[in-house]
UniProtKB/TrEMBL annotation:
Official protein name in the record: Universal stress protein E
SUPFAM superfamilies xref list: Adenine nucleotide alpha hydrolases-like
Main localization category: cytoplasm
Family: Belongs to the universal stress protein A family.
Alphabetical keyword list: Cytoplasm
Length: 314
């Protein structure tokens, strides 16, 4: 159930405006819950000040943290004055993604929100290394927020994998649709949810390598399998056929194009969180899709996901 009640907002220290905090407030005003505005800061120059004693360096760090807390309060003053429950926490840590994930775990947060930067020319979202670490490793859903007003009548687009190559795809599809429906009903008066799936076409050279192979028959059969699987999925959630889309092509092209056509406010994707050699050899399809999105992204991990970050207890 996507009853997000304990939200963590990763504050962007380079911005005087915080779209992720706005989105969190939007959710809390409609769904209830509380917000923690979190910032991890680090300046090596304070650690290298050898002329100062450890006590003096610690005092300097505390002073910087206090300044940042005051800055965040100023950023959130309108929400605080209106009665929104926002806790502010600033920590000194040299790896922001580890600090954020550790806070997610220790604070039992059920949703992480962070601003995603936008490319000025292509209008697509640019993801930083910090974003990628969070998308791959954070155990709770991650909402990457675009610095843009939510589109009027914006849809929630759920990208599903209907290939059924692995059993976990079916389970993850069910989780994605269920959580999207549940969240949409809580925060939107008239939720509009679309399902989209892409299927690959036969390689052009396969007909020359296998003379008896008919690529048209293959493509039609594959489309038919995806249509049957999509029908089965939409019927489980009472989604109208007009709100389902099975399209030929690679996901990194089909999904962003469909989101543009539908004026999507957010696309919901499943991310397996592969890292290391498994990511290098098996790839992360969702990550190729993400690079081309122009809307918000809600990334959800499958059940049983194991976070690779260890919690450090002080």
């Amino acid at each position: 159930m996507a009853n997000y009640q304990n939200l963590l907002v990763a504050i962007d220290p380079s911005q005087d405006d915080q779209p992720a905090l706005r989105r969190a407030v939007y959710i809390v005003q409609r769904n209830g819950g509380r917000i923690k505005a979190f910032l991890s800061i680090y300046d090596l120059s304070y650690e290298m000040t050898t002329l100062l004693s450890p006590e003096e360096r610690n005092a300097m760090r505390k002073s910087v943290i206090s300044q940042r807390v005051a800055w965040i309060k100023q950023q959130a003053h309108y929400y605080l004055e209106s009665g929104i429950d926002i806790e502010i926490k600033v920590v000194w840590h040299n790896r922001p993604y580890e600090a954020i994930i550790q806070e997610v775990i220790t604070g039992n947060h059920d949703l992480l929100l962070k601003m995603a930067h936008q490319h000025s020319k292509l209008e697509s979202i640019i993801f930083t290394p910090l974003d990628w670490h969070l998308l791959r490793k954070c155990p709770c859903p991650v909402w990457m927020v675009k610095d843009q007003v939510w589109p009027e009548n914006g849809a929630a687009v759920v990208a599903v994998n209907l290939s059924h190559e692995e059993a976990y795809h079916s389970e993850l599809n069910l989780k994605l649709v269920h959580e999207t429906q549940d969240l949409a009903k809580r925060i939107v008066k008239e939720p509009l949810i679309h399902l989209v799936s892409a299927y690959p076409v036969a390689p052009l050279n396969i007909a020359t390598e296998i003379p008896d192979f008919d690529p048209n028959v293959y493509n039609q059969a594959l489309r038919g399998q995806h249509l049957v699987a999509m029908k089965e999925l939409r019927q489980k959630f009472c989604i109208d056929e007009q709100h389902t889309h099975v399209r030929e092509g690679v996901p990194e092209r089909v999904i962003p194009e469909t989101c543009d056509e539908l004026n999507a406010g957010v696309v919901v994707l499943g991310i397996l969180g592969r890292t290391g050699l498994s990511a290098a050899f098996l790839g992360n399809t969702a990550e190729h899709v993400i690079d081309k999105l122009k809307c918000d992204l809600l990334a959800i991990k499958p059940d049983g996901f194991i976070c690779p970050i260890n919690v450090v207890t002080e």
